């Protein structure tokens, strides 16, 4: 009987750790889909049941304090570091969607969705209109 309880306890711990490790939340290294170079560290966090992402660090030499010159509205000429670039993703099965992503390079916002490819790889898709017309980046767990 004790043996069965021990096994059940160990299995419960393993399942618990597996479920916690498979999350979009945490810090991610963004990889430029055009150059393949690491661009920034982004933190994805939860607030009121939705997911948000903000830039914690810019990795390109000489651009650590860059401003969002192309942004519109309240983000224009504000530091990119610390800027929220994804606002309010909602969970829909294995996908997080129904939000916009900001490209600080162009100042443009796109519809987006993200999915966890595996524990260490996040697929981030920005698009206009339909998800077929857009760009995909893969972010790596920091």
From TrEMBL:
Keywords: Signal. The keyword Repeat does not apply. Residues 1-21 form the signal peptide. It comes from the Bacteria. Pfam families: DUF2147. The keyword rRNA-binding does not apply. Residues 26-140 form the DUF2147 domain. This is DUF2147 domain-containing protein. It comes from Lutibacter oricola.
